[in-house]
């Protein structure tokens, strides 16, 4: 890209684009993307970005996209930690659960109904909930069988209640900051992808600058 654009130096955007291609694949746009489906993908990814910004403000959102990558990824939100993580607070993992819920919930709140397409997010939620159960977060007890943590009825009930609270909290954030979510969605619909500066500018314009 640098040579093709006639530049003699690599920019931060060049680095971000290269990392994106390495992680999620080369762009493979859908030539005739149904407008409503495209809006759904944009709303979904905007929801992820909004909740990441609110609950994990130290994370840097490097890219937001509704351009298909490879043959299967219709959209994505990529956020990275500014430091290496060798241990994680329980609260941080809980925030990641809410970020994962946010795409599906954003569609429900903004578009008025749930859509299919969040299977990967739900798998992430399931994995993280299992980790919490294995660490005794639910019902203040460790599962007798760590490989089947939710076989314990008390743990399962506590996890269900916890999940409901997490979803309600996420829905509250999307509702409270719906204008910001819609601004990110509109940016995606206009450009297809947003880089870190464009995302940050959108947050800043709506009073969500980092403290």
UniProtKB/TrEMBL annotation:
Segments forming domain Peptidase M41: 34-141
One term of GO molecular function: metalloendopeptidase activity
InterPro entries (UniProt xref): Peptidase_M41, Peptidase_M41-like
Classification via Pfam families: Peptidase_M41
GO biological process: proteolysis
Gene3D superfamilies: Peptidase M41 (1.20.58.760)
PANTHER family referenced in this protein's UniProt entry, alphabetically: ATP-DEPENDENT ZINC METALLOPROTEASE YME1L1 (PTHR23076:SF97), METALLOPROTEASE M41 FTSH (PTHR23076)
Protein name per UniProt: Peptidase M41 domain-containing protein
Source organism (scientific name): marine sediment metagenome
